[in-house]
Amino acid sequence: MSNLEKSEIINPKNISTQYGITAGLLMASFLFAMQITGNDFRPFIKLLKYLLLGVPIVLALIAYKETVKGDIFINGISLGAKLAFVAGLSLVVINFLLFMINPDIAFSKYGLEPVNMMQNLTVSAIILAETFVFGNLIAFVTLQYLKGSYNKGKV
Hints:
Elements: H1 15-36, H2 43-46, H3 49-67, H4 73-101, H5 117-154
Helix pairs in contact: 1-3, 1-4, 3-4, 3-5, 4-5
């Protein structure tokens, strides 16, 4: 395994943790802006936050590929999953902080604006699950491309 990625899920030296926190902060900034401007009930626009997740995933996988000899698919899937989890966890922490500051600025989901801690927990769990699933899908698609470019260079 590369020096950039240890087996722990959250390790400040891991490329997945570094890029995951960056992705979480980018997504949180976007969601916060949507919440503040009153556009929190526009689900198709809110899907753009996954572009902010995709860019760090692609960059992390490219950086990781340059340090690993051979096929990166299995380790890349692991890196993508950890990165997506860290990004989702960052969103959850930020959402709880926003809720404690003022429940009106906490993230909403599917028309549910949290007014108590249980609703905030529900919204946060949905955000974590969505981020993890979309992050894994983005990593899988990216790795298909990177795997193909590795095989072309091999011939």
